[in-house]
Amino acid sequence: MLMWIQHFFFLYLFPPASLLFIILPNSIVGAPVGICYGRVASNLPPPSTVVNLLKSNGINDVRIFDADPETLLSFSGTGISLMVGVPNESLPSLANGNADTSAQWLQSNIFAYIPATQVKYIAVGNEVFLKDPFFTPYVVPALLNLYHALEILNLGNSIKLSSPQAASVLSSSYPPSSGMFDPYLESVIVPLLQFLYDSRSPFMVNAYPYISYVNNLKHVELDYALFKSRNPMQDGALEYRNLLDASVDALVYAMERERFSGIKVVVTETGWPTAGGEAASVENALAYNKEVVRRVVNDVGTPKRPREGMEAYLFSVYDENGKNGEDYEKHFGIFGLDGNKVYDLSFS
Question: Do residues 302 and 249 touch, judged by C-beta distance below 8 A?
Fold first, then answer.
């Protein structure tokens, strides 16, 4: 089936609407809460220090954004599960090669430094469709080559592949049942969904209620973004009491609108800044992340998928002084450079 997708992707043809889609079973038991280890900064401690910090706080799932050898070696043998990122600029060479060249890339760039047993996900690119559109045509071909490479290495069942996208790939998300992908992205979203469905891989989404809040101050209540709303939003028979649930379910509805049911969602980034913008504070960051952790460790699903726990990665270990964009982008750190928590967040 996957080779079939690869052939038709390049012809810009899509599966007929009449294909029968089988709903995948809910399989999460005790969804993990992870953390993103961003390194866009000039003042960070070495990776070995970070590993000790994470272990001492009981954090066993970590997202890193590239296959940096020093970082991978520092995590090797620690028992921490990794989501390893493939940088956007690496996509063309992976897409234009084949399964064998992708297998060589995996061996040389990842498995030479860390056991495959510690790699849970490989995130192929990051927010390509909206933030780095030059690389858009290479996403699915790269995923296909890497998938077949993992099969060659007998790792196809243990390591899942996906490509994290911004929640704003939706053109409509309110109410959640109106969830719809941006029509301009449909020609690339559909092949991605087909790959995820066939390979039983998750849709990875970077979801930031904070950004939705600051961009829509007149329409989004702060309490709704912070899990504190006392006035639920009714959407048919479902009630929504927070923006994160609504964002995830809008994505689920959008996938169903494209006739792809049962694809798991993993929140690959979420968090709240401590400074640099409206309502960015230590108190609000603690309130938001504390509730995310509570929901994850207690397998609290969304209104549309109440029996499926949400897997999520908090952003981020440290503030990143090299981040571009709005000032708040630099202030998502949960830990200070001295290793102490910026606020008293428990990860369990």
Answer: yes
